[in-house]
Design goal:
With about 170 residues, the protein is mostly beta strands. Helix content is about 0%, strand content about 35%.
Length: about 170
Amino acid sequence: ANNSGTDDTLDGTATGTTWRLENSTSGGCKVNGCINIDTATDDITNTDPAFFDSLTGMTASFWLNPQTLATTHAIVSKSNTSQETFLIQTDATNSDEIRVYIADTVTDTANYFTTNNANLTAAATSANWQHIAVVYDATAATGSRVKVYKNGSHLDGSVTGTLPTAGLTASTAN
């Protein structure tokens, strides 16, 4: 669902992924099955959902089972090769941390929030699912516009640059 008032779903196209069933021998899933994205080339893409443009608030939540993670690996985004409306990824220097970009121009990569206590791969096993929630609130104070939660607990972090009071307008990023 989304904030457009139409309750649209975001049906995407999966590339390189595999579907796993809950409690299967290939690794259990949290609820009713899951998509396994286990290489840098696996992804799910969608067309350009315009309701992300000019966003002033959003929550993205997902279950993550990080047995191994690379640095600078996208987890959730509305981006393409030339534009990033928002991007949630592993940190550029520490794959155990999360970095969140909210862009106000098509080339903005200087303004982001980075966690400093996510510890994503601690005790990593096929059964170690973690719920991650990222909240963006453009009306909050500059240092509080992005908050990240792991299994319901708020994670500490720091802001680099200044997170915008509204997301990118009319992005063509997917």
